[in-house]
């Protein structure tokens, strides 16, 4: 695909735009085998290493991307190793002055997801996976104003233990329903989607529900209208379904499973059967049929070919 076509296409899409209670296990893939459609995504329309989007950085700089949201003509990224929030133009133009790192800070952030309240106060929400709070671990939601200035944080009354704190909240999505504001948070270890409201200074669970499919891990959640999507890092898979308009549940028989494209040991897509996108950590709809994803840093235990797509941002067309 020619560069001019990619840029034209991206311009077009940017303009259209307390302890966990025991719950039933998620439905396994075999339970939906009669209706679940499985597809393979084509190569990304465009992708870029994160360091190459910013002036003054190089391949030695680490960007452990863990969440992304598309808003206007930009993508906003969070990293679990940085307090900075990345803002990048949706053409993924490299070393572009429009790209910046906002609300900077020092240390490891533990950020795992980002979303935007588009309704009234124009508030950004960033979720910290879990933070020790007395004898338990709770997720925590940080709020930012429209200019990405940090405002405050609130605890979530959903508890994790010392053995589950690193499989806690992995993504968030904002929902406006019946004139009320909600956040949906995704639990990495169980696939539970926790529906929360801010009551006083605490995000309180309203209910939770599960996806109609089981993954080894659950990495991020995104919404576009009633369309809902979740990515799995270990499966290198994207699940897309429909959120009920009348209840907190998934509409049955309307799911599609997308596998991210595979390739050879040199990272060439379509030239082999190796899982290249084994580090997908974030996803956001750009429009009804286009997504942006971001990838974490590959660990030393992963195959070398998965480093070709780590610490990157990519745009995929659903089909």
What does the secondary structure layout of this molecule look like, with pairings?
Elements: H1 3-15, E1 37-40, E2 46-49, E3 65-71, E4 74-79, E5 82-89, E6 100-102, E7 111-117, E8 123-133, E9 136-144, E10 150-156, E11 169-177, E12 180-187, E13 192-199, E14 202-210, E15 220-224, E16 227-232, E17 237-242, E18 256-259, E19 262-263, E20 274-275, E21 280-287, E22 290-295, E23 312-317
Parallel strand pairs: 1-18, 10-14
Antiparallel strand pairs: 2-23, 3-4, 4-5, 5-6, 7-8, 8-9, 9-10, 11-12, 12-13, 13-14, 15-16, 16-17, 17-18, 19-20, 21-22, 22-23
Report on this model:
There is one protein chain. The longest helix is centred in the first third of the chain and has 13 residues, at 3-15. A hairpin with a 4-residue loop joins strand 16 (227-232) and strand 17. The protein has one helix and 23 strands. An eight-stranded mixed beta sheet has the order 7-8-9-10-14-13-12-11, with no helix packed on it. The protein has a five-stranded mixed beta sheet with strand order 1-18-17-16-15, with no helix packed on it. Mean pLDDT is 90; it is low at 1-33. It has one domain (3-317): Neuraminidase (6 Propeller). It is mainly beta. It has one helix at 3-15; strands at 37-40, 46-49, 65-71, 74-79, 82-89, 100-102, 111-117, 123-133, 136-144, 150-156, 169-177, 180-187, 192-199, 202-210, 220-224, 227-232, 237-242, 256-259, 262-263, 274-275, 280-287, 290-295, 312-317. 4% of the residues lie in helices and 45% in strands.
